[in-house]
Amino acid sequence: MQIQQNEQHPDKPQDHHRFPWGSVSFVVIVLLSIAVIATIWIYLGTDAGIFCTVLFVAFGAVFAFLQLTPSLFSKTTEPSTAPQIIIHTSPSEHGFTNAVPSSKQNILDATIIPHIDQPSLVERSSSETESLVWNVPYHRNPFFTGREALLEQLHDHFSQAATAAITQPPAITGLGGIGKTQIAIEYAYRHREEYQYVLWVNATEPVTLTEGFVQIARLVQLPIKEEQDQHKVIEAVKQWLTNHNGWLLVLDNADDLNLASEFLPTTGKGHMLLTTRDAATGSLANFEVDKMEKRESMELLLQRAKILTAHAPLSQASEADQTTASTIVEEMDGLPLAIDQAGAYIEETQCSLSAYLKAYQKRRDKLLRQRGAVNKDHPDAVATTWSLNFEQVEQQSPIAADLLRFLAFLAPDAIPEELIMKGANELGEQLEPIAADETLLDEAIGTLRRFSLVQRNSEKYVLFIHRLVQAILKASMTDELRRQWSERTVRAVNHAFPGVEVSTWPQCERLLPHALVCAELINEYALELPEAARLLNETGRYLDDRAQYEQAKPLYERALAFNEQGLGPNHPATATSLNNLAALYDNQGDYEQAKSLYERALAIREQALGHNHPDTARSLNNLAFLYDRQGDYEQAKPLYERALAIYKQALGHNHPDTATGLNNLAGLYDRQGDYEQAKPLYERALAINEQALGHNHPDTKVVRQNYTRLLEEMKQQGKNT
Q: Shortest CA distance to 275 belongs to which of 196, 194, 197, 177?
């Protein structure tokens, strides 16, 4: 049973502008008082003057207090508490209570920036607050150069076509490494004063899109923001975008435009901007990014190398530097990513432009001999600059080199630094010391940043690596080395991924994209590791909890296959996998599939663990719930009763699992209309949870809601409560 609150916002008090007669009267009285006191001092002497002065000061203080602080005596009205709505849903915790809370720690992944009062492209309503909600995960690039025409075209598109901003949103298209994301970042920073909401979503895959829209729900404080079923949250965000104005929504790396279109509102007054490698943009307005012009490329190289100061004109460079820079950018074919890495190398090593050019040409020729023809996905310019930079990293910091190898096997965006810290013991001898000394991680990240190989958001403790850099790094490895780092990555992510509970949902959300990449590595390299089975199972559990059933199912199936093959068909871990897969079918309404899996899990647990083990009770509970939701109360009741008896015997009468059993049995009586049987069970369950978990724990809230609703129903039917 989920609990959800409707939010009510009381109207703001109106300011009533009137002439300040009271204040004027006060000033007049003060002036007259001064005149009278002066007269008394002159004609009646000092004693009388002091007495009158004190009297008038006291009078003035009382008058000022009454006049200038009327709010102390005015009556205020507190906003009313919104009623709670009870929504009956299927279970999703894998202890499987009959009631599952949806509450979760509220995390606003955003920065509030004071609003700059300038004319807006998007008309705002007077009720909107004057602050900018901002969740762009990247800092502004101090070396951003050129692209002025494209930025102006984007701005003109938004300015001139109010309806086209939604029906034909612009898509920045181009090859990898061409600078699409950097252009979107620059546009967001350059025009942020024109919006009230600047919202950024990583559109790489379904899970990152979903996560991004859930974050938006939290940012704009939608009542449904912590709803367990994330599909409902997505629809609520789309509706919010339709109903509001003053927003810019960026979908970055939306290479699957069909997928991205499922998340876009069809109407509204805001602005949407996409970046994609897909040039076939269909109804989207295509803003193709060409390779940088030669002059802009030279400026970027010289500024990044600190030969020119930021935004200095090319003319300030020497003629010799301009000539060599011209040759270098021609070699790099105008790719900003390659030029940026070249500038970083020159700055860090303090080599001359001509020395870098020789090293670059020598390395490029060697790579071409190794790699053969040009690979469109791995441009030679980027591969060559990366190779030179990575060679320097290996010489300066073996820890940084291994850190980059690890990052290459994760999702490229928003890599949590705590993942590196928690998983360091699984990442080989170079990275293992990081687990005990965080400064080593800072030093390694600093080395990679100096060579423009990663970006860091120090406020949110996440790292970013370009997908091209990942691809080139993995392509440079042998098959054996790729497999080794795949195994290390799976073990590290498994170590960091928590057991799935409502309280750990925020951690699971941060790690989910990387866990899904690990699932691909497990399949690609057939990694039959205990850590792989556990990671698949926990990732599936989290997706199952968030109603992402289609994504959870193959993870559960793979975990089940691992356990059956590696541990045997009658192992307790196999029963766990069977139970979780059964729960997924149960949630989807496929009761026949669920029933057979639940029964098999129960049989394994009774055989392997015994008839009175808590896990056996959980299987009984889950099977009972399956019958219960189908209305087969006769089958459900003895299973609930047996589960409750085991909980009491194995865990004690005051254990939260015992409260779960009481709550579920009470729910069965409740649904049958046997309120007299249900009431004492709810009361006992509530008392246990309040004592063991606290009054505000999600499970306590659920039982309290069940009990409160029961009392209301009994009252309506005239029964004694």
A: 177
